[in-house]
Amino acid sequence: MRVLCKCGERAIISRSEPVQDDCSNLFCSCSDPECGHTFVSPLGYKHSLVSSKIETAASLPVVNGSRVTCGCGERAVIQKTNRLSNDCADLYYVCKNPVCGHKFVMSLFYSHSLSPSSKATDELAVALFKALSPNQRRNLQQQISLF
Q1: For the chain, where are the alpha helices, taking DSSP H only?
Q2: Cα–Cα distance, 125 to 132 (Å, whole number)
Q3: Which residue of 15, 46, 94, 107 is surrounded by the most CB atoms within 10 Å?
Q4: Which residues contact 82 (CB under 8 A, 6 or more apart)?
Q5: For the segment 67-102, what is each residue's pLDDT rounded down to a tens digit?
Q6: Is the pLDDT of residue 55 over 80?
Q7: Across the strands, what pairs with 95?
């Protein structure tokens, strides 16, 4: 699972605290030593795409640290990531048990800072601009030119 810092760099998950069986707070820190941002990103169950074929399996997955286990007890792996923004993503999981076949979506998003980034505002703006797609950059440049 890839968690990104607000500056666009990859973040490292240092620990997690369970909120419920299907939700956990991930404590993250930016891998860029110049940034040093530490923050919390919750990982929680959103909905199922395909229900488990095992009748005795629990319907909700279990979050243990940054690992996700299907209700049948087998490990679940990320099949696809739909990054909605730099700080929000839908993670599509599939159970490793071929008999179960449970497919579900977990939501990962930025919650709050524990310590702010040490990068200056202009450095953060440039990093965010670089993270945009070319089409998004053009749109932003057009919007800025209106001021």
Answers
A1: 121-131, 134-145
A2: 11
A3: 94
A4: 89, 90, 91, 92
A5: 899 988 899 999 999 988 878 899 999 999 989 989
A6: no
A7: 76
| Total number of residues shown for the chain | 147
Residue 143's identity, in one-letter code, is: Q
Please compute, for residue 91, the number of CA atoms within 13 A of its CA located in the half-sphere on the CB side. 23
Q: How far is CA 109 from the centre of its chain?
A: 5
In whole angstroms, give the CA distance from residue 27 to residue 36. 13
Residue 32 vs residue 118, higher pLDDT: 32
Classify residue 7 by its DSSP letter.
Answer: T
Q: What is the pLDDT of residues 7-45, one digit of tens each?
A: 888 899 988 898 888 889 999 999 988 888 899 999 999
For the beta carbon of residue 78, count every other beta carbon within 10 angstroms.
14
Q: How far apart are CA 90 and CA 108, in angstroms?
A: 6
Alpha helices for 50-133 (secondary structure H): 121-131
pLDDT tier, 119 (very low <50, low <70, confident <90, very high otherwise): low
Write the DSSP symbol of residue 132: S
